[in-house]
Write a sequence for this structure.
């Protein structure tokens, strides 16, 4: 199964993608995690990505697309994947379509996790206190939410037109949200 998880920062994409990918038996591919691993390792990609992430901005499409293309071409992603945090721009949507088409594949579903703005801000402020992620300061959180509203939220209309979009309410316990996602994917445990 090939699934994309969308939703604002703090909606729980990473949290849910990991669980759902485990249940489906496919890799969890998170652009945020790949960038953070490169930042931690001090690679050239990490040095470039960090400048944008720390400002709450998106990393340029050219960098992000090449990274995803490479990851999805690996053997373990052939039977399927849960993509977390990609695509986030119009150009990334086109690039993902092209990648899948050239491999004779298509998406099965795009899930949008919906969460109130107050709730996502509260979650990210809590995560900042617990984990100290450098893009979780209050100013940067606000900037990330603005960019999501401008550049990513409109993409759901495209997936809606393609009949792929399913909205899933992202509040409540992690287990409750997972159960809603599995129901939206029509997957029985
Ligand atoms: P991401 O890593 O995707 O970060 P995120 O949007 O903050 O997190 P997510 O929605 O996954 O929330 P999480 O599960 O962690 O992106 C970080 C940055 O990387 C971007 O700002 C950008 O700069 C760059 N980037 C990534 N992809 C890109 C792309 N495609 N193009 C360009 N740039 C890109 O959950 C958040 C918190 O809520 C956690 O503390 C969690 O414990 C908690 N939580 C989760 N579910 C909960 C629940 N049900 N109830 C209460 N708390 C919950």
């Amino acid at each position: 199964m090939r699934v994309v998880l969308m939703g604002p920062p703090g909606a729980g994409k990473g949290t849910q993608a990991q669980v759902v990918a485990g249940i489906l038996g496919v890799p969890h591919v998170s652009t945020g995690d790949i960038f953070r691993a490169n930042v931690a390792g001090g690679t050239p990609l990490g040095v470039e990505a960090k400048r944008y992430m720390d400002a709450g901005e998106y990393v340029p499409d050219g960098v992000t697309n090449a990274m995803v293309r490479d990851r999805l071409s690996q053997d373990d992603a052939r039977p399927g994947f849960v993509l977390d945090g990609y695509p986030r721009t119009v150009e990334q949507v086109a690039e993902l379509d092209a990648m899948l088409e050239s491999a004779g594949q298509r998406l099965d579903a795009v899930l949008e996790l919906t969460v109130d703005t107050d709730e996502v801000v509260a979650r990210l402020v809590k995560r900042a206190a617990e984990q100290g992620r450098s893009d979780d300061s209050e100013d940067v959180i606000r900037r990330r939410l603005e960019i999501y509203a401008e550049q990513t939220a409109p993409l759901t209309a495209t997936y809606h037109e393609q009949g792929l979009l399913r909205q899933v309410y992202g509040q409540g316990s992690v287990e409750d949200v997972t159960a809603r996602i599995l129901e939206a994917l029509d997957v029985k445990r």
